[in-house]
Amino acid sequence: MKIRVAYTANEQDKQEQLEDAVKDLFPDTRVRKTAPKDGFLHTVLTVPISEKHTK
Q1: Distance, CA of 26 to CA of 53 (rounded, Å)
Q2: Disulfide check for 46: which of 5, 21, 22, 30 has CB 3.0–4.6 Å away?
Q3: Strands of 2-7's sheet in order across
Q4: Per-residue pLDDT tens digits of the chain, which is 55 residues long
């Protein structure tokens, strides 16, 4: 699952809170930050899908 976050420089602290919350829930989360584009910063959080299927 991918979570894409677009934010401004003023919202950096909120983005870090979101990133920490996702990492707490899913420790294997990968984070990729991209260069600024059109005044927004972008972060992509990739949560790996579990191979274990529970009933």
Answers
A1: 16
A2: 30
A3: 2-7, 40-46, 30-37
A4: 999 999 999 999 999 999 999 999 999 999 999 999 999 999 999 998 877 766 6
